[in-house]
Amino acid sequence: MEHETSAAGSVGRVFSLLRLIGSAGSGGIRLTDLAERAALPRPTTHRILRALGAEAIVAFDARSKRYTLGLDLFLLAARAGNVVGLRDLARPTLLRLTASLGETLFLLVHNGYDAVCIERSAGPLPIRSFTGDIGGRVPLGIGQGSVAILAFLPPAEQDEAIRHNLPRMRDYGGPDEASLRAELLQVRRDGFCGGASGLIPGMAGVGVPILDAEGRAVAALSIGTTTDRLTPDRKAIIAGMLRQEATAISRQVNPFDPTLRRAAAAM
Amino acid sequence: MEHETSAAGSVGRVFSLLRLIGSAGSGGIRLTDLAERAALPRPTTHRILRALGAEAIVAFDARSKRYTLGLDLFLLAARAGNVVGLRDLARPTLLRLTASLGETLFLLVHNGYDAVCIERSAGPLPIRSFTGDIGGRVPLGIGQGSVAILAFLPPAEQDEAIRHNLPRMRDYGGPDEASLRAELLQVRRDGFCGGASGLIPGMAGVGVPILDAEGRAVAALSIGTTTDRLTPDRKAIIAGMLRQEATAISRQVNPFDPTLRRAAAAM
DNA sequence: CATGAAATTCCGTTGAATGGAATTTTCGAT
DNA sequence: ATCGAAAATTCCATTCAACGGAATTTCATG
Q1: Chain B 36-65, residues with CB within 8 Å of chain A CB atoms
Q2: Domains and their CATH numbers in chain A
Q3: Residue B218's beta-bridge partner residues?
């Protein structure tokens, strides 16, 4: 069972097509190739694509007969990235910090056993990071932002993620369980992760969690920079700034706390 | 809003639900409300949502029983061919210009009779604009970026858009046909739109088109600022910078020009 | 604890999606 | 220009997956 045909049914079919189109690159993909990769009959593929085209979810270039993702999917997706409004909330923060620090900032959200980058504000320096650009995904425990999330997960969930991720971490040259757990404790104490993990030579960073009303991490703010730019005192300053911003964001996220819903509904 | 039930069939049903969820805000929406707005039976709605949930295209908060757009929908578009790669191409440009000018920049794409904002890089000043944030939509002809696109459309398409949009423009306090056409000519001559359209008091801006290989506008780069910050000489400087950036982006877009594909394939 | 509203499951029915086959279009080779 | 192969597109009889009315469970509210 590789990626399996997902949930069967027409919905599954539609999104397996969309994912294939999405991974086909900006040049687009032809019907036949698409049908083959999706293991669907050509007429079926064609009919679904027509329907998707009518919705502007896919675009069809009549000249090259190639399909690409359409504008409406893009617009829909822009809203989808707004996990609990986090993206909109955090964007000004990222821009401001990038401007004042001259560093690259990331907004990561917790998703399953991974952290996913949903926003990024690039500083002037070229930065290598695990998460890469928007859409990038790393196992929880790899990278400062990702570790910050892991450290502030409820114990059961944290254990589960560690158990699941330890094997995967080998691919990244990650730590063994003992040192990981030690780091998590320290991060919980400090409120941020600034480990010079050294996983990418010359690169360093700081990550702080964004917590929900129950104190569980839902996301993280992090910066990525080079080791020499992250002197201990500068690291302390940056950690403080990040924590402050993360706290401010947390406060704005938490109004969605279900216990307050009644008040909002009354308006 | 609902212009019609879109394309019928299950695909139409799926995306009308997704659009409704998307427009429900980050708080999410409940099954019953969704079913009612979509004019679908609750069980049908429920089944489709389950399938979408299995794909992580929608997220379901078990606590509040509310549905929101899921992360995978975001990742689908983020990882891949967003509008011919324009967004990725333009993002660094927007950030750079925002940093150096201290202004808010917009990337608009041509879509039907409208221009749609697909990226925006906010400067320090609070800016009022028609397009608003990402996803915002204005009729072609309203706002500098939008006018820049309209001016560089093929004549037939331009006429069609003007005919269609003139009535709509009344809502924005837009110009009459004669002055609009006069402005379009000027924009075509100058290569940019810097009209102090005065549609939003105190606000001004500059828009330049991003052209495809055939010289048709596919998008526009624009800045939005206040009238007093846009002195004539600064406007000229900014227009020059924008044109240069837009040209650079055009060059990177155009390698995908179908007429050149054969050459690329031969490599 | 009672009550109503919402969510969820069930399942017999049916019509919409399916896909094999036929047709048309595209495009490269001669 | 002509041909032929490959791709795209249309057709349509079949069927099975989606449908939705009804029943059941869950949940919030008074």
Answers
A1: 48, 51-52, 54-55, 57, 59, 63-64
A2: 9-71 (1.10.10.10), 79-256 (3.30.450.40)
A3: none
pLDDT digits (tens, 9 = 90+) for B187-205: 999 999 987 655 777 888 9
Q: Under a CB-based contact definition with an 8 Å cutoff, are residues A224 and A104 in contact?
A: yes
Number of Cβ within a 10 Å radius of residue B176: 10
Contact status, residue B129 vs residue B143, Cβ threshold 8 Å: yes
b/e A46-75 (16+ beta carbons within 10 angstroms → b):
eebbebbbbbbbbbbeeebebbbbbbbbbb
Q: Report, in ranges, which bases of strand D sit under 7 Å from a protein C-beta.
A: 6-11, 17-22, 29
Residue closest to A110 by CA, chosen among A211, A195, A19, A22 = A211
Question: Which of these ranges, A100-104, A170-174, A211-215, has the smallest mean pLDDT?
Answer: A170-174
Confidence (pLDDT) at B267: 24
B253 exposed, middle or buried (CB, 10 Å; 0-12, 13-18, 19+)? buried
Cross-chain CB nearest to B81 (options A10, A68, A261): A68
Amino acid at A15: F
- The DSSP bridge pattern shows strands A203-211 and B217-226 to be unpaired
Chain B residue nearest residue A70, CA to CA: B83
Residue range A94-109, pLDDT digits in tens: 878 987 898 999 999 9
Contact B204, B196 (CB under 8 A): yes
Structure tokens at A58: 């896919």
Are B104 and B124 within 8 A, CB to CB? no
Residues 143-182 (A) with a CB less than 8 A from some CB of B: none
